[in-house]
Specification:
By secondary structure, the protein is α/β, with parallel strands linked by helices. The chain contains nine helices and 14 strands. 28% of the residues lie in helices and 24% in strands. Strands 6-5-4-3-2-1-14 form a seven-stranded mixed beta sheet. A seven-stranded mixed beta sheet has the order 7-8-9-10-11-12-13.
């Protein structure tokens, strides 16, 4: 069984825990570590877990809201850290005392009864990666921080039963915001972040009878609202808006079992 719990999503910090179990053994992967270590510890405690129960860390890219306390957490608890070579270089090639594992596009990471497969995405980072995960029965897609959905992205997310998908901004709110012009261009560009409408278009291509749950993630606090994201993604799937889960910066999400509606 696969399940996930987002611990916080947005520009203030991102972290998602993915857990797979075969009934005897459970392995946990922390995807991004953009929270402070005390905050991360507190949010894990709310989920009934401790930092030492994390088996591996996966860093999607080098931006600060995804890195956070990754190095200090890894060194303190001797947790392997997966990231691309480009991400490691962009961070200044920090010494991880033998805990660094290099992630590559389409090379699965073995987590016992399940595996996580990185794939490249178009984003303004050195070598960004996102993930799809499977235990052989169900499939989870994790996709945040990208400017557009390439053919490669669509191929890697096909057949997912649960999707955590960026719905970063409403284009009208972004255009009317006080953000400087260069930042508006960056966010709305091909290597920035997915607008609600772009996320909805992607969902239309990924919809299939087995898709049971969609989580809207990485919402902008200034240029989006949960209601707008839910409306756009729900309409794309023909689902009631309340069926779209929203990952919040402060509370993340509850535990979600992959494949369960």
């Amino acid at each position: 069984m696969l399940r996930l719990k987002n611990l916080g999503s947005g520009s203030s910090g991102n972290a998602t825990l993915i857990e797979g179990s075969d009934g005897l053994h459970t392995r946990r992967l922390l995807v991004d570590c953009g929270l402070g270590i005390r905050q991360l510890e507190a949010r894990l405690a709310e989920a009934g877990l401790a930092l030492a129960q994390i088996d591996a860390i996966f860093i999607t890219h080098e931006h600060s809201d995804h890195i956070g306390c990754a190095r200090s957490l890894a060194l303190k608890h001797r947790i392997p850290v997966w990231m691309s070579h480009g991400t490691h270089v962009a961070l200044g090639a920090p010494d991880l005392d033998g805990l660094l594992r290099t992630a590559h596009d389409l090379e699965p990471i073995d987590l016992g009864s399940w595996q996580a497969t990185p794939f490249t995405v178009p984003h303004d980072a050195r070598e960004p990666l996102q993930l799809h995960c499977t235990d052989g029965a169900t499939r989870l897609g994790v996709l945040t921080d990208l400017g557009h959905a390439s053919a490669h992205v669509k191929e890697q997310l096909a057949g997912c039963h649960t999707l955590m998908l960026e719905a970063n901004h409403d284009p009208h709110m972004l255009e009317a915001s006080r953000y400087p012009a260069f930042l508006k261009r960056r966010i709305g560009g091909k290597y920035g972040h997915l607008a609600n409408s772009a996320a909805a278009e992607l969902l239309c291509t990924l919809q299939h009878p087995g898709l049971a749950c969609v989580i809207a993630a990485h919402l902008s606090a200034q240029n989006n609202t949960p209601a707008l994201a839910q409306q756009a993604l729900g309409a794309a799937l023909g689902w009631p808006t309340e069926r779209i889960t929203v990952a919040s910066p402060a509370n993340g999400t509850p535990w979600i079992t992959v494949g369960a509606a």
